[in-house]
C-alpha cells in the first residue's frame, strides 16, 4: 500500500503524533495520520463528535504497526484536529471527507472500520467507491441515526429551540455538549441507507453491544438485512456498551480483522 503526501513512522503513531492535513474543496484542513504497510489498508472512520485520538483508533494504530499492516485514521470536518465548527457539519460533508481520504491518502484495497456514525459513513463509502473496498467492520453501527434516533428523541421544546437557533445542545454522558443541528437532520435524509437494498458484496462484520444505551443493536441487524451480499455476520456482545473499548472488545475487533485479512 502506498501512502501519498508523506507518512508517520509506526513508532510515532500515538495520540500525540503530528497529523498530516488534506485540504477540502472549501480549503478547510482535514487532519489524518497514516502508517505504511501491507495491503489491504485499514481505514478507521470514527463516531459522532469523536476524534482519531480515541481508544479504538489508537488501538488499531498499534494493531496495524505490530503486524506491519497499512493503517489510516482521520478527523472529519469539525472533529478533533480538523478545522471547522462541528455544528456546521453534515453527513454529506463528512462523507466527502471520507472519500477524499480514500482518494488522496492511500492507494489499493481497503478494509473500512466504522464506529457508530462511522458505520453509516463506511456504508456510504462502500457504495460510492465499491472498487476500493475489500471488507467492512462496523462497531455499534448507527446508520440513519439522524432520522431514526435523533429526530424521534426531540421534545416539543427541543424543536422550538432548533427552529429558533438552528442548534440544540444537550449534556453528553461522555463529557461536554451533545450537539444536534437542524441542517444535520435535514441533510441526513439525503443519505439514508436502511430504506433500500444495498449492493455490497464484500465481507461485512458488525459488532454491537446489547447493553448499548445510545444505539440499539437493531441498527446493526437492520444494516445486515439491507446488505445484499451473503457474507455478512452480526456479533452481539451481551454486556457490551456503546464504545466497545474494553480489553475483551478490542480483542474481538483484532480477531475479526485477523480473520478478514487472512482471507482477503
UniProtKB/TrEMBL annotation:
Keywords: Hydrolase, Transit peptide. Residues 42-148 form the AB hydrolase-1 domain. It catalyses: mycophenolic acid O-acyl-beta-D-glucuronide + H2O = mycophenolate + D-glucuronate + H(+); S-hexadecanoyl-L-cysteinyl-[protein] + H2O = L-cysteinyl-[protein] + hexadecanoate + H(+). GO terms for molecular function: hydrolase activity. The keyword Transit peptide applies. It is an enzyme of class 3 (hydrolase). InterPro entries: AB_hydrolase_1, AB_hydrolase_fold, ABHD10_acyl-thioesterase. It comes from the Bacteria. Its EC number is 3.1.1.93, 3.1.2.22. The keyword Coiled coil does not apply. Acts as an acyl-protein thioesterase that hydrolyzes fatty acids from acylated residues in proteins. Regulates the mitochondrial S-depalmitoylation of the nucleophilic active site residue of peroxiredoxin-5/PRDX5, a key antioxidant protein, therefore modulating mitochondrial antioxidant ability. Also catalyzes the deglucuronidation of mycophenolic acid acyl-glucuronide, an active metabolite of the immunosuppressant drug mycophenolate. PANTHER family: MYCOPHENOLIC ACID ACYL-GLUCURONIDE ESTERASE, MITOCHONDRIAL, PALMITOYL-PROTEIN THIOESTERASE ABHD10, MITOCHONDRIAL. This is Palmitoyl-protein thioesterase ABHD10, mitochondrial. It comes from Lacibacterium aquatile.
Amino acid at each position: 500500500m502506498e501512502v501519498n503526501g508523506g507518512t508517520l513512522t509506526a513508532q510515532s503513531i500515538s495520540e500525540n503524533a503530528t497529523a498530516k492535513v488534506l485540504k477540502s474543496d472549501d480549503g478547510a484542513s482535514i487532519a489524518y495520520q497514516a502508517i505504511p504497510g501491507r495491503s489491504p489498508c485499514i481505514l478507521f472512520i470514527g463516531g459522532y463528535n469523536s476524534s482519531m485520538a480515541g481508544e479504538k483508533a489508537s488501538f488499531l494504530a498499534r494493531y496495524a504497526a505490530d503486524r506491519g499492516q497499512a493503517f489510516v485514521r482521520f478527523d472529519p470536518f469539525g472533529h478533533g484536529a480538523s478545522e471547522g465548527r462541528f455544528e456546521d457539519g453534515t453527513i454529506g460533508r463528512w462523507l466527502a471527507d471520507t472519500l477524499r481520504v480514500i482518494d488522496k491518502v492511500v492507494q489499493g484495497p481497503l478494509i473500512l472500520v466504522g464506529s457508530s456514525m462511522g458505520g453509516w459513513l463506511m456504508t456510504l463509502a462502500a457504495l460510492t467507491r465499491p472498487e476500493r473496498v475489500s471488507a467492512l467492520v462496523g462497531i455499534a453501527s448507527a446508520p440513519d441515526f439522524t432520522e431514526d434516533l435523533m429526530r424521534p428523541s426531540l421534545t416539543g421544546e427541543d424543536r422550538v429551540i432548533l427552529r429558533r437557533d438552528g442548534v440544540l445542545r444537550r449534556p453528553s454522558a461522555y463529557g461536554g455538549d451533545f450537539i444536534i443541528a437542524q441542517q444535520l437532520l435535514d441533510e441526513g435524509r439525503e443519505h439514508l441507507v436502511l430504506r433500500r437494498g444495498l449492493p455490497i458484496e464484500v465481507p461485512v462484520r458488525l459488532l454491537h453491544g446489547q447493553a448499548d444505551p445510545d444505539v440499539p443493536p437493531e441498527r446493526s441487524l437492520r444494516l445486515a438485512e439491507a446488505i445484499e451480499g451473503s457474507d455478512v455476520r452480526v456479533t452481539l456482545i451481551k454486556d457490551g456498551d456503546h464504545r466497545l473499548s474494553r480489553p475483551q472488545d478490542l480483542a474481538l475487533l483484532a480477531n475479526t480483522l485477523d480473520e478478514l485479512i487472512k482471507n482477503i
